[in-house]
């Protein structure tokens, strides 16, 4: 009987029917708002989003007043002032999301040597994109017979090596959504994946709108190009060259 290797136990994420995967489908902005709530209340304790500022939420998932209120909940170290000293102030729309740790060394020390990745572009940086992140969040289970996992690690068949330092981050009713949506594990994972897709690709909706406009423009330009080809170049295409030797 041949033994199983680690790669034999690794699962590839299935292809989920995301509502924004269609050629003209936009992101679910209500889901983005719920996904931000999941990040803020669950993920932000360990994971940073260095490339996302509070102003990016305006007009996408929150109004300007709501985004300002979220920013003001954060105490930001700023300065120096006129006396050369640093000071704290309420956050502003231009401030980026706060980091959970001051430096990578502190992050490793708090997580048994593992460095929690920044989530700004995690969907674009992982093979499988949203499918992988969703499967990872919902795929924790007991290891199969014969597979040993260290005490501080957790078994997840979708993670390379199947042993991950992150404990299961979500479960049913871990939070209450502001809009009353039932906070099941799959709903939480789906919403945070949609939020992370928007964070990694904020131009998603704009790109698809521009693509539709380009298709409409090309539908008008194609007959014109065909006319130019058939009629303007017809003189060159139909000409006949005759050689008349000198007498």
Automatic annotation (TrEMBL):
Which stretches make up the Cytochrome c domain? 30-126
List, in alphabetical order, the GO biological process terms annotated in this UniProt record: mitochondrial electron transport, ubiquinol to cytochrome c
Q: Tell whether Acetylation is among the UniProt keywords.
A: no
GO annotation, cellular component aspect: mitochondrial inner membrane
Q: How is the cofactor bound?
A: Binds 1 heme c group covalently per subunit.
The family database entries (InterPro entries) matched by this protein are listed as: Cyt_c-like_dom, Cyt_c-like_dom_sf, Cyt_c1, Cyt_c1_TM_anchor_C
**Presence of keyword Amino-acid biosynthesis:** no
Name listed for the protein in its UniProt record? Cytochrome c
The scientific name of the source species is Pelusios castaneus
């Amino acid at each position: 009987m041949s033994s199983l290797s680690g790669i034999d136990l690794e699962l590839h994420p299935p292809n989920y029917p995301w509502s924004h995967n269609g050629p003209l489908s936009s992101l679910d902005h209500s889901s983005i708002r719920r996904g931000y709530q999941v990040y803020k209340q669950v993920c932000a304790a360990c994971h940073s989003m260095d490339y996302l500022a509070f102003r990016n939420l305006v007009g996408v998932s929150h109004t300007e007043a709501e985004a300002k209120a979220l920013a003001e909940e954060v105490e930001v170290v700023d300065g120096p002032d006129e006396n050369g000293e640093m000071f704290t102030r309420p956050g502003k729309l231009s401030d980026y999301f706060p980091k959970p740790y001051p430096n990578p060394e502190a992050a490793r020390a708090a997580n048994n040597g593992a460095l929690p990745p920044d989530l700004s572009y995690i969907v674009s940086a992982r093979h499988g994109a949203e499918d992988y992140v969703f499967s990872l969040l919902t795929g924790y289970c007991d290891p199969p017979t014969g597979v040993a996992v260290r005490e501080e690690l957790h078994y997840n068949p979708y993670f390379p090596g199947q042993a991950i330092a992150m404990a299961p981050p979500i479960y049913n009713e871990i939070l209450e959504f502001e809009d009353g949506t039932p906070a099941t594990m799959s709903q939480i994972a789906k919403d945070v994946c949609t939020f992370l897709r928007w964070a990694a690709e904020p131009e998603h909706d704009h790109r698809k709108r521009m693509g539709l406009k380009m298709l409409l423009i090309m539908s008008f330009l194609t007959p014109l190009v065909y006319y130019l080809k058939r009629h303007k170049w017809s003189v060159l295409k139909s000409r006949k060259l005759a050689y008349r030797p000198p007498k």
